[in-house]
Amino acid sequence: MSADQKTKEQAIEMQVSSTGRPTSTGAEEWLGKVIAVLDHGFVYLVDYMGNDEAIEQAARVSYGRGTRSASATRGLIRYLLRHKHTTPFEMVELKFHAKMPIFVARQWIRHRTASVNEYSGRYSILDKEFYIPAPDGVAAQSTGNKQGREAEFDAAQAEAVRQLLIDDAVRNYEHYEYMLNDDGMGKPVDSSRSMLTRELARMDLTLNYYTQWYWKIDLHNLFHFLKLRMDAHAQYEIREYANAMSRIVRDIVPLAWEAFEDYELGAVSFSKREKETFVSLLREKGVQLIPEEVLDAAGNIGLDNKREQRELLDKLGEWGLLQE
After folding, report:
1. Are residues 213 and 102 both part of a single domain?
2. Cα separation of 68 and 9, whole Å?
3. 128-185 pLDDT, tens per residue?
4. Domains identified in the chain, total number
5. Would residue 106 show up in a list of annotated catalytic residues for this protein?
6. In whole angstroms, how far apart are CA 195 and each of 75, 120, 206?
7. 26 and 82 part of one domain
């Protein structure tokens, strides 16, 4: 085990606050620390429950706090995530406050596995804040992906698009204010006109106006969200929020995050036919791997867990790629 890994494991030893609540050093450092996203957006950690050891404790209901080493916690967490035993990860919960453009929120809310409370445009007057992409973010429609972008616009076209977005957003907010006819204190600006209800006036705002919410989710479903929204194929704007949250999550549950990177973010899966194609090509070329050399290679890249090494050999054996 490397010195870096030992340092990481020492850093995640569970702490207990003066209230007796299990805490995470990383989470405590991130509480209330705002990460700016896009031009007016942000995300920060409001509250949390659990840490790496809480995942293990949920899986081993009978053991008491402090009875396991950090290396044992790491090994179990990796086993759980590797074999898709996801329930223990639901024992960790994180609550974020995020501010994002409405069109990002509409994508985000498709992940129906969180508790959400959004800023109400029926109750409150929305701020005059709207998102305008940077010039290098203005791009042509992809010809191969109806949801994607392709080449960037040239500078003149990009600026023309940006100016249209600004003009429309400003004009619509002026109409919004006119229809509200509200001085901010519940009194009409123009007493000769009625005050339109807020729930109707908000219809005129463009999708690049900002909304915000509290978003609480367990770690299992958060990992699913991050895997999808950190992917290079995800829309840039929501990817920026996912990347910001990932900075927080990796500090709260470093062992779970390490496993997530290994088995989800950095992993590649094969379909049945893809695997058969791959294996048949290797067999045709007479590839026969020596188990000892496989284990040496695995150890050199950090795959030092004996159980994982055995599972690797089992896979290669099932595919007929190991020397007898």
Report:
1. yes
2. 12
3. 999 999 998 888 776 666 666 667 788 899 999 999 999 999 999 999 999 999 998 8
4. 3
5. no
6. 62, 18, 21
7. yes
